[in-house]
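[Meeting: bench + compute handoff]

Bench side (C.D.) handed over the final construct sequence. Compute side (W.E.) agreed to return the predicted structure before the next meeting so the bench team could plan truncations. Sequence as handed over:
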Amino acid sequence: MASSFVIACVGKPSAGKSSFLNAVTEASAKVGNFPFTTIEPNEGIAYYPVACPCATQGVSERCQPRHGSCVGGKRLVPVRLLDVAGLVPGASEGRGLGNQFLDDLRHADVLIHVVDASGTTDEGGKETRGYDPIDDIRWLRGEVEAWIWGNLDRKWAGIVRRHVATKAAPADTLHVQLAGYGTAREIVVRALDRLPRDFPELGRWESKEELRRFVGVFLDERFPTVVALNKIDMPDSDKNISAIMKRYNQKSSTTLLDGVSVDNIVLTSALGECFLRKMHKQSFIHYETGSDDFSLDLPGLKPLDEKSRRRLETIRDLVLFRYGSTGVQEAIVRAVDALGYVPVYPVKSLANFGTPAAFRDCVLVKPGTTVREFARKLHNQALDRGYAGAETIGGIQLGESDVIVAGKNNVIKYSTTSHE
């Protein structure tokens, strides 16, 4: 069973999106088959690190994931990454590859927006000086908002009339209109819940401003966004990063400013990550993604030429020591965490967690998933028909309606009865 969500990577030309994609999809953790039936040409596989229970249960030496990898209790779980095409101003009006860009977004659950923090590329990706990267953040949100608001606004009067006539629930009326954007009803419900208590009922939305406010909170729920401020080792990046952090460090508004929370801004050096991985793969250094340093003096490593050594020292000084990592793995972590997905480990035995290999599977599930819901997703009708119960570590019995929580009941053994 594959984790079902999709992370979409967006960014203007020359912002570093291609380098970012290379950095997060060429991990050495690519072992075994992927848990996805098909991978489209513009899709890749990234890896989400989680703490594997094999470490706390003393079976790390037997932990052999069916997908991804696990080393010393650090498990890398494969997730889908979508390379979204054609991000330029005017996408909502069909400019550039705008129609393809917007169509790709329908398949996304969360966005990673790669932004050139150095200000050395303009809105079209051409070389310049002094460009404000905040503009890129603004117009991404503006394009998506114009796309959805424009479609709703053109037919809004008719929508309201039908809503009043049918006396449907507001969430049902809006879900009919928003389903084409890959929207589940629960997202519409969450968006409505975020509106102020004194906000008019749907049938009384008479101004464009009311519709705009709803679209704003809807977009916050439908497309949570992680901003990857890239090229952090460039000369002008520091002042731009400070300005961006200051702008988005606001907590009071119902709607996020430009759809961005300061908690979901990550500082990245995609090119730095790519170079470190290349040097590691060629045995010049020892490096693990997400680390704050690399090693040059371990047995078996090849000698470095002076040019490579200088570049490595620059990455160490301007990126690793300064910011703690290259940030690319953290961007993936923030994207998955923005969705609240929970890692679940289904096992056949709580005594040994699998023989000869332990903890073969790890599945990321939506927040709020219950024990019985996961059983249905795991084995469909077979386990559902013969469901007899479930338990977790320590022989603790789980109720069907118990919500799965990481570190509490997310190692699950199901029991079945024969079903004629």
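W.E. noted at the follow-up: The first strand starts at residue 6 and ends at 10. C.D. will use this when planning the next construct.
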